[in-house]
């Protein structure tokens, strides 16, 4: 199992936002946004900042996926 941020990207599309918008709203670095794009591990603090910025819950940002689903 691994983490997938597909729900986050879908949420951004639904809210008509770009990754740059997320970066500005949450105060995250470009490197952290890049990690999310590669489904790499980030701290729970990062996930909380995203949820606060987007007004959403954790399950709307990340999900557990099998290695095949995550593209590994």
UniProtKB/TrEMBL annotation:
This is Helix-turn-helix transcriptional regulator. Residues 8-61 form the HTH cro/C1-type domain. It comes from Arthrobacter gallicola. The lineage of its organism: Bacteria, Bacillati, Actinomycetota, Actinomycetes, Micrococcales. It comes from the Bacteria. Pfam families: HTH_26. Coiled coil: none annotated.
């Amino acid at each position: 199992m691994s983490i997938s941020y597909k729900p986050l990207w879908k949420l951004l599309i639904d809210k008509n936002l770009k990754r740059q918008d997320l970066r500005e709203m949450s105060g995250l670095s470009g490197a952290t946004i890049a990690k999310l794009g590669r489904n790499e591990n980030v701290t729970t603090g990062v996930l909380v900042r995203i949820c606060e910025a987007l007004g959403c819950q954790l399950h709307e940002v990340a999900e557990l996926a099998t290695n095949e689903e995550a593209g590994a």
